[in-house]
Design brief:
By secondary structure, the protein is mainly alpha-helical. The protein is built from 12 helices and no strands.
């Protein structure tokens, strides 16, 4: 073997030895899962997610991979990454529609949307998504463990939708777009018959009728208002304003 060949052989051997020395150690799925659980309990959610994903990538255990998928969603949720959490819970349900915790995943998906809701004058998509998810839960799991909370959250979503309708309607009223305000308030009265906040709708619709010179409709509405919500603070306000007008 000449000098050049010797150098090449040594170089190749060195590369092989170095490559073997630096090759990553692939841990078994159960070891990775246990490490992820420790990180999860320590609230190191981002690191836990990384480990849970490695469990899935091993393709060793369907059971552990399924557990890891749900834990990834939980970790996103607890880390307040609600967009990622909602997507992960939805993915879990699509992959495992008959899983014993599919109802839990649907519930948490709805809560993830709900937790994205901010002020009423911003994008209403999270409200719509949360409401649709809660409705789906109540249809699919009418006796589910989270039924009571879902029912309460659903009602909150409905109330937030009504608040938005009031916000838009008041804007129209403020900008003298009375017919637009009337249309908004009238539709809202039909759409939200179960909410107490509809007393505000009565009040502002009455004002819109009067501003639009529809006094007869305003008087008819006032009669209806008095029958349905006789103790309403807004009804008292309406009557006070009427008295002021007469003076």
């Amino acid at each position: 073997m000449n000098g050049l060949s010797g150098v090449i052989v040594v170089s190749v051997l060195t590369t092989l030895i170095g490559g073997c020395a630096s090759a990553p150690v692939v841990k078994p799925a159960d070891v990775l899962y246990n490490e992820a659980e420790v990180l999860f309990q320590d609230k190191s959610y981002e690191e836990a997610i990384t480990h849970y994903k490695k469990v899935k990538d091993t393709y060793e255990s369907v059971e552990l991979s399924t557990k890891a998928e749900l834990k990834i969603a939980d970790a996103y949720f607890l880390n307040k990454d609600y967009i990622e959490a909602a997507a992960s819970y939805e993915d879990f349900r699509k992959l495992h529609p008959k899983h014993p915790q599919a109802d839990y995943a649907l519930y948490r998906q709805g809560i993830s949307y709900f937790n994205q809701i901010h002020s009423i004058d911003t994008d209403q998509t999270p409200v719509k998504n949360a409401l649709a998810t809660f409705d789906s839960y109540l249809r699919q799991y009418p006796t589910g463990k989270q039924r009571d909370e879902v029912t309460d959250k659903r009602l909150e979503c409905r109330d937030k939708q009504l608040q938005y309708e009031l916000y838009v309607g008041r804007y129209y009223l403020k900008t003298d777009a009375y017919k637009a305000a009337i249309a908004r308030f009238e539709q809202a009265l039909k759409s939200f018959p179960e909410l107490k906040r509809r007393e505000e709708l009565y009040y502002y619709l009455w004002k819109a009728y009067l501003e639009d010179k529809q006094k007869e409709k305003g008087n008819e509405l006032l009669v209806r208002f008095g029958k349905e919500l006789p103790d309403s603070v807004f009804l008292s306000r309406t009557r006070e304003e009427m008295g002021g007008e007469r003076k």
